[in-house]
Amino acid sequence: MDNNSEAANKNIVELATFLVGDALCGMDILKIQEINKLIDMTKVPQAPSYVLGILNLRGQIVTSIDLGKKLGLGETNLKEDPRNIIVNSPGEHIGLLVKEIRDVVSADKEKFEPPPSNMGGIQGDFFTGVFKTSDKLIGILDVDKVLRIEENDQ
Amino acid sequence: MQIEDDEILQGFIEESLEHLADIENDLLAIEEDGADIDEELVNKVFRAAHSIKGGAGFMGLTTIQDLAHAMENVLGLIRSSKLIPAPEIVSVLLNGSDKLQTMIEDIQNSNNYDITEHIIPLNAIVNGDLPQASTPPETAVEEPAAAVTAPEPEPEPEPEPEPEPEPSAPPPTSAPEAAASKTPPEPEPAQEPEPAKSAPPAPAPKPAPAANSQKKDSKKKSPLNVDTSIRVHVSLLDSLMTLAGELVLSRNQLLQTIASDDPRNAETVGQRIDLITSELQEAIMLTRMQPIGNVFNKFPRVVRDLSGKLNKEIDLTIVGKDVELDKTIIESINDPLTHLVRNSVDHGVEMPADRVNAGKPSRGTVTLKAFHEAGQVVIEIIDDGKGLDGDALAASAIDKELLTADQIAAMSDQEKVNLIFLPGFSTAKEVTDVSGRGVGMDVVKTNLDKLGGQVDIISEVGKGTTISIKLPLTLAIIPCQIIMTGGERYAIPQVNLEELLRIPANQVKDRIERVGNAEVVRLRGNLLPLIRLADVLGIKRTYYDKESDEFKEDRRERISDPRGPENPAFNTDKEEVQTQNKEPLEPRKRENGDRRFTAASALNIVVVSNGSIKYGLIVDRLQDSEEIVIKPLGKHLQVCKGYAGATIMGDGRIALILDVTNIARMADLTSLDGSDRAAEIAISEEERVRAKKDKQALLTFRSSEEEQFAVPLNQVERIEKIKLSDIEVLGGKKVMQYRGGSLSLIAVDDVAMVQPLADTEDLLVIVFNIASQIVGLLAIGPIDAMQVSVDIDETTLKQAGVMGSTIIDGQTTMLIDIFEIVGALYPEWFEDQEIYEVVEEDGSPPVVLIAEDSNFFRNQVKSYMTECGYDVMEGEDGQVAWEVLQEHADEISIVVTDIEMPNMDGFELTKTIRNDPRFAEIPVIALTTLAGEEDVAKGKAVGVNEYHIKLDKEKLMTSVHHYIKQLH
What we know:
The complex is a heterodimer of chains A (154) and B (968).
Chain A: H1 4-10, E1 12-20, E2 23-28, E3 32-37, E4 51-57, E5 60-66, H2 67-71, E6 83-89, E7 92-98, E8 100-108, H3 121-126, E9 127-132, E10 137-141, H4 143-147
Parallel strand pairs in A: 2-10, 5-7
Antiparallel strand pairs in A: 1-2, 1-8, 3-6, 4-5, 6-7, 9-10
Chain B: H1 6-33, H2 39-59, H3 62-79, H4 87-105, H5 116-126, H6 135-142, H7 144-149, H8 174-181, H9 187-191, H10 195-198, H11 207-225, H12 234-260, H13 263-288, E1 289-291, H14 293-296, H15 299-310, E2 314-319, E3 324-326, H16 327-348, H17 352-357, E4 364-373, E5 376-383, H18 390-399, H19 405-409, H20 413-417, H21 441-450, E6 454-460, E7 464-472, E8 477-485, E9 488-493, E10 497-503, H22 505-511, E11 512-515, E12 518-523, E13 526-532, H23 533-537, E14 542-545, E15 550-553, H24 574-577, E16 603-609, E17 614-619, E18 621-629, E19 643-648, E20 654-658, H25 660-666, H26 676-694, E21 695-702, E22 708-712, E23 716-723, E24 728-730, E25 733-738, E26 741-747, H27 748-751, E27 762-770, E28 773-789, E29 802-808, E30 811-816, H28 818-825, E31 847-851, H29 855-867, E32 871-875, H30 878-887, E33 892-898, H31 906-915, E34 924-928, H32 933-942, E35 946-949, H33 953-967
Helix pairs in contact in B: 1-2, 1-4, 2-3, 3-4, 3-5, 4-5, 4-11, 12-13, 15-16, 16-21, 30-31
């Protein structure tokens, strides 16, 4: 799926990294359309708990998801100036709310390691692997899985 | 097959489909013209087939090319007048074009299609092996009986043409005969499966695939035409281009203005942009508009094929093809319309013979009409068939237990006809493959509801049926009512909006009632279920405080609850509630007054309906009505059924659009199977019975300005206007001269502890005739006579001279017991009244059985009786009374019964009594509030001895005395 055409050649991906809770996560930067500050959001009563609300992104209705809550890493504190990562999803844009944006890291796909086996539960489901840099560990987020609607969401 | 260039292929598909759409109608027109060929038309079809052939050849679509080529050949002959386009030939061509369409829609596999079944008859026609078949179709049309013996192959005209295979086939002529005379044509293909491939297949299997492919077509057509592309007139595109150019210019101006910080200029630029955007919006909307002809055009074929199949003669008239509707609507009305047209042909229009018998021309007409009306598009499907029999529908609804007989009785003819929309209601006596597929009209209605359309049926038995559908022009922009709840804005589509209702704080208690767990409001005599939006959405209940312009939490459980002593305005989690205004809120001081009596406590109700169900939505605040653009919600929010989408408001924030139907569902307002309408009917029926039962004619008046009184209207003789000076006080009693005598005057406050008679010059005298004397009650206006449902409270305000109280038009009203007042002031008048003194053998007084469901009236009658020395037994309805009567058969001497009662009404009670030999002689006196002549006659018929108006004590007692005396 994703951006294989390009990555397949070089096996190098640019990872946008960000903090969800205290965990450093990364995703392919090509999947990101833009990164915003938190803008005025409209709450949607009865929505799944991880949906923060909907917002108006230049005339488009964007559903905003609290990534921390979705991944089971704790609710993102709205007062700590979180950021919205707008990603493309078939037919719409979706905002992923994260605590903080970090650097862009170039990573070799070959060096991705499978997620540690003790990273079970919800988290394990959403990560395809981990990538080790000299000083930190980045969890590679499976965005498609995060955005997928689970049957038992409701 | 490889198709290199997608774009060219797409172009070919579009063009071909367009040609095919025309071909169909043109072929039908050619058929109609017969030998008298319209060359232009034939040429057009010829050219269409030709260009499809050419294009297909270019693309390597050989199968399509071959078929188009074969068709072109036939058309060529017609064009050169070598061939007369008889219906059979046209049928072959039509089948061919259907097949072409199927293949073009499935272009990738088109070369794998087997087209021999089309090629052979086409070639046969060209080779002059014309079907002698000209006979069979006629038999098919003219002898409906034939259809009974061989229903499958017969109705399809298609089989006939094929029998002229040149090659190895069985003799062509035998085939149609076989179809007509021998019922089982199937064996033929079974026996010769191989020749069937190369040679013409026997007639029997043919109709089946033909029919199938046809069905497939109609199904496939819609998804394929959807969403691919749309044709727009170049001039429209040009104007769009111009507008876009202007928009860019204005943007540049705006940027300049901002840079130069010139506020005056900004205003001009703003206006300009405003103008351009609305023009742009309009133009873009136009691109979405499609003529309804796109849908209508397929109906000539549908009607032709169907009527042929059913042996009916039907003309289809189409009016208003040019009316334009939004593309999405055009696509979605296709199926409902097809269903309705098929219904009209199948069930509406009768067989020719029946029509002639009914004095109608043997050819029926079905008219499809589209026109604009009041900003909506109306589509009518009119047939001159047998019409819908409302009573038959009603009977069927009872059979299917969708409704009860009582509910039906309350319905108008129009409502009965509309029963056809009830879920689970199919009119077809038997299921035919044409329209009675058991799906029924409810699906049509549901589909139209989704489009924001309304459907209505007008029908006259024997004359025909008109189904009219009202559709909005477009779904993209809709007018909406904006409301607020919990600090957020929501939009309710105007089509769902019936009215806005505001119940002032001081009326809330009176007008909102609770039925079980549900809150209802009485709206013009109907009970309207209420839903709190906050509850349905699961958010905190709030209310809007105008003074501080903020939303505050509402802690009351229900509207009618008195609140606890704690201050409701003070809440701990302000964050959530006060989105409007963040200024710190101090706990409000009690002296601000009880909220029950402030404006903030008024209820804002949006009365909404989706056609079948109507309810009131309680919201915090009503705002303006706005035109909004619907935007879909993301997939994560699809689980939230309460929203139809979202929209962006002028300030850039988002408002959710409410889905009225689903909200009702979420609130469990309706059963999920959708028998909403039935429920509504049940409610209205209940309401009707209830209203009828307790209706009482009252005369309201006042004695002082503040207090309102009422007396039963039937006790009043007349009303006179007098002046204060007319009253004379003699011997401690008030009198006035009246018709040459003197009239005793009384006032309510003479007896009852109420405020004294107002001290004004102009007075009214309400004249009563009591104990064969006339007496005048002094009163002041305003007086009014009205029929009201009395729900009498006999405790709160009961006192001497006052029977009880009721609420009339929001005003507590005391009901005057005029007998008691007169009795207190002029006891001597009643002295000569008989008190029953005859006692039964055992020394006890005679026993009266009172059957009456209203406590108030029962107690009232009971008091008359006991006053006069009778013993009383009671039953709160006919059933109970009957049981009491049986138990105490020996003691009860007379029965006094109400007419309108639950379980067993007065008529039935009387009938039951009369049918029992033990009680054949017992007197029965009926009491009623409405002594209609009909009722009186009905009562006499079942054995009621006498009728009296409720609360007419004197007459009632006289007749009780009379009957008791007779007994002894």
